[in-house]
């Protein structure tokens, strides 16, 4: 049931809490703990990837291919960066006994302060006049 909720809508990024809310809305009776366990089982089976954006929340991505993300701080939302927009420079060699699994970039975005922007425009107009 949870799998259907998770994978039935194309690629997406969810937290356990988001999926739990969706399950409640769909009248699927599960506990938040079950949702956590299910997500981690899917992750162990490589059907999901876990992304830690900050210390408090884990996002699970149904797209398991290597790709980069925008994180919209105002919405607390992850969005895939279209392919080819980010070029990775040199990656350091892995320390002995380990290997690089993948390199992923999270570009954090927040809305521009529109007030600061309009005062900037105003002062620009002043100088132009
Ligand atoms: Zn993604």
UniProtKB/TrEMBL annotation:
Q: Where in the cell is it found?
A: Cytoplasm
Source species, domain of life: Bacteria
Required co-factors = Mn(2+); Fe(2+)
Annotated residues for binding of Fe cation: 67
Query: NCBIfam families per the record?
Result: FeRespRegIrr, TransRegIrrA
Question: What is written in the cofactor note of this entry?
Answer: Binds 1 Mn(2+) or Fe(2+) ion per subunit.
Any one cellular-component term (Gene Ontology) = cytoplasm
Quote any Pfam family the record assigns. Answer: FUR
Give the Gene Ontology MF terms in alphabetical order.
DNA-binding transcription factor activity; transcription cis-regulatory region binding; zinc ion binding
Q: Which family does it belong to?
A: Belongs to the Fur family.
The name this protein goes by in its record: Ferric uptake regulation protein
Return the InterPro entries for the record. Answer: FUR, WH-like_DNA-bd_sf, WH_DNA-bd_sf
Species the sequence originates in: Pseudochelatococcus contaminans
What biological processes does GO assign it?
negative regulation of DNA-templated transcription; regulation of secondary metabolite biosynthetic process
Whether Ribosomal protein counts among this entry's keywords is: no
Any idea which UniProt keywords this protein has? Cytoplasm, DNA-binding, Iron, Metal-binding, Repressor, Transcription, Transcription regulation, Zinc
User: Subunit info?
Assistant: Homodimer.
């Amino acid at each position: 049931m949870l799998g259907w909720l998770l994978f039935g809508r194309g690629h997406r990024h969810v937290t356990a809490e988001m999926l739990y809310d969706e399950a409640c809305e769909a009248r699927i009776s599960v506990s938040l703990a079950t949702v956590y366990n299910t997500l981690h089982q899917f992750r162990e089976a490589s059907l999901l990837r876990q992304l830690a954006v900050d210390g408090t929340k884990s996002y699970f991505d149904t797209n398991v291919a290597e790709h980069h993300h925008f994180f919209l701080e105002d919405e607390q939302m992850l969005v895939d960066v279209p392919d080819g927009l980010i070029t990775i420079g040199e990656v350091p060699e892995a320390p002995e006994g380990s290997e690089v699994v993948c390199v992923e970039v999270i570009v954090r975005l927040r809305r521009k302060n529109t007030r600061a922007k309009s005062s900037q425009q105003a002062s620009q107009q002043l100088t132009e006049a």
